[in-house]
């Protein structure tokens, strides 16, 4: 077992070897700078951070609504990532939660991270309480007010989510579970590009293809997405059934209640791939960009972390923009301008490989945390929190628990970094201790009290 002195020396040695810089696409960096500037001169106070604890203010609320299953509180100190609350075991398993934790751990091993703390919102939609209630900036550089109901009322606790609309103040992170944990993940698809690239453009079928579950997110149902003709955009996932039936020579985009599924890796046989939002942004859109086909993307009010860097009609073809049926015109254009459509497919693949690969995502998280760290107006430290579980130990627990052991390939992390991370090898007693904590649905420390 390492002595305290040896542990400090080892951590210092490892930290000294970590990267301290990287470069992002200018538009992606610009978005980070803009979003992390939302706190203005006032910055992020400790009261704002601790106000997230009020989200679960009574035992009854926790037990009845499981509200501690949505916010995952995270603190980084001296390069080590800690968790300030633990999600109950019965809600563990989905890669949406675990994927970002895996990616954060790898970032902490590759880059020298600043001290920060924030909340990761485990849902397709960030909370409505982080929506801005008016546009523009407050006086003297003060932050814009939000609907946040807790004290400091109208503030904006630092929070991350994998998508948002323009009127929400959360910071965006990659949908890491879909990028690296799913069986048909972006990383797995990128590793097999020699196979998907094997279908020549001339051999692809000149047909728009799409398959998805037949559900619709709320912002279409509420008429929040509008086309240029002023009409509400219908739910693409169900409406395209009708368009496909009317134009079978152009389009085969159906929900799975109408047509059989086709594996993602086989969809590259079509020249045109259709993408729509699911409950929020599509976790497959990123992968479609790799397929070497021209991607058609339905209008939406949701953004992902890299969307600002994508150019319409350069990397993808937008539809449901002029009117609800303009995909017909768009597909006809693609057929008539085959070389332009092919170049667009190549531009999309080049963009994805350069800006969405794992190294690019790690760089993104490092840059996001670096800019965010400039906003804190108090010393970020585990000594100020009631619970700080090292992320390395949490991931070791996930790797051996029946509910989570197959969620993500943890071994590739620990095989690569375990030998140099003293926290990555907890003994059996510590793993049992972490396991017991996950059985307590009240494991939501009230740091605000």
Question: What can you tell me about this protein's structure?
Answer:
The chain is of the alpha/beta class and 449 residues long. The chain has two domains: 19-174 and 359-438, no CATH class; 184-304 and 307-355, Rossmann fold. Helices cover 36% and strands 11% of the residues. It is globular. The model is unreliable at 1-14 (pLDDT under 50). It holds the Pfam family Glyco_transf_90. Keywords: Signal, Transferase.
Search tags:
disordered N terminus; 2 domains; Rossmann fold; alpha/beta; five-stranded parallel beta sheet; six-stranded mixed beta sheet; globular; 449 residues; single chain
Order of adjacent strands in the largest pleated sheet: 5-4-3-1-2-11
Number of strands: 11
Instruction: Give the end-to-end Cα distance, rounded to a whole number of Å.
Output: 36 Å
Instruction: State the share of residues found in helices, binned by percent.
Output: 25-40%
The overall pLDDT, averaged over residues, is 91
**Proportion in β-strands:** 5-15%
Which residues sit in consecutive blocks of at least 5 with pLDDT less than 50?
A: 1-14
Structural category is: alpha/beta
> What kind of sheet is the major sheet?
6 strands, mixed
Count of domain modules: 2
Taking all Cα atoms into account, the compactness measure Rg is 23 Å
The ordered string of helix (H) and strand (E) elements is HHHHEEHEEEHHHEHHEEHEEHHHEHHH
Tally of separate helices: 17
Shape descriptor reads globular
């Amino acid at each position: 077992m390492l002595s305290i002195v040896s542990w400090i020396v080892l951590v210092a040695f490892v930290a000294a070897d970590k990267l301290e810089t990287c470069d992002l696409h200018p538009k992606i960096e610009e978005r980070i700078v803009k979003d992390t500037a939302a706190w203005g001169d006032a910055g992020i106070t400790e009261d704002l951070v601790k106000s997230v604890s009020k989200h679960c203010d009574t035992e009854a609320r926790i037990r009845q609504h499981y509200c501690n299953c949505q916010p995952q509180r995270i603190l980084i100190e001296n390069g080590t990532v800690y968790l300030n609350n633990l999600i109950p075991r019965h809600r563990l398993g989905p890669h949406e939660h675990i994927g970002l934790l895996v990616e954060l751990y790898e970032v902490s091993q590759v880059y020298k991270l600043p001290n920060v703390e924030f909340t990761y919102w485990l849902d397709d939609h960030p909370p409505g309480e982080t929506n801005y209630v008016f546009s523009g900036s407050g006086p003297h550089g003060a932050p814009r007010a939000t609907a946040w109901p807790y004290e400091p009322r109208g503030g904006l606790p630092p929070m991350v989510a994998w998508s948002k609309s323009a009127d929400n103040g959360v910071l965006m992170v990659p949908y890491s579970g879909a990028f690296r944990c799913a069986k048909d993940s972006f990383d797995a698809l990128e590793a097999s590009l020699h196979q998907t690239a094997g279908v020549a453009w001339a051999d692809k079928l000149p047909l728009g293809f799409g398959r998805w579950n037949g559900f619709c997110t709320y912002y279409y149902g509420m008429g929040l997405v509008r086309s240029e003709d002023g009409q509400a955009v219908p739910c693409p996932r169900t409406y395209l059934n009708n368009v496909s039936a009317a134009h079978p020579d152009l389009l085969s985009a159906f929900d799975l209640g109408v047509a059989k599924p086709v594996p993602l890796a086989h969809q590259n046989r079509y020249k045109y791939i259709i993408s729509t939002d699911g409950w929020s942004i599509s976790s497959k859109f990123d992968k479609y960009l790799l397929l070497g086909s021209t991607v058609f993307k339905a209008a939406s009010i949701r953004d992902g972390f890299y969307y600002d860097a994508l150019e319409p009609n350069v990397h993808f073809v937008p539809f449901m923009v002029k009117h609800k049926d303009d995909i017909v015109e768009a597909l006809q254009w693609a057929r008539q301008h085959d070389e332009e459509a092919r170049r667009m497919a190549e531009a999309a693949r080049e963009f994805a490989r350069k800006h969405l690969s794992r190294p690019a995502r790690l760089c993104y998280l490092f840059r996001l945390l670096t800019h965010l760290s400039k906003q804190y107006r108090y010393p970020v430290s585990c000594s100020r929190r009631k619970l700080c579980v090292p992320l390395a130990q949490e991931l070791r627990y996930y790797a051996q628990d029946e509910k989570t052991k197959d969620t993500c390939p943890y071994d590739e992390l620990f095989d690569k970094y375990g030998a140099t991370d003293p926290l990555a090898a907890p003994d059996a007693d510590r793993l049992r201790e972490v396991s017991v904590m996950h059985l307590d649905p009240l494991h939501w420390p009230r740091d605000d009290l």
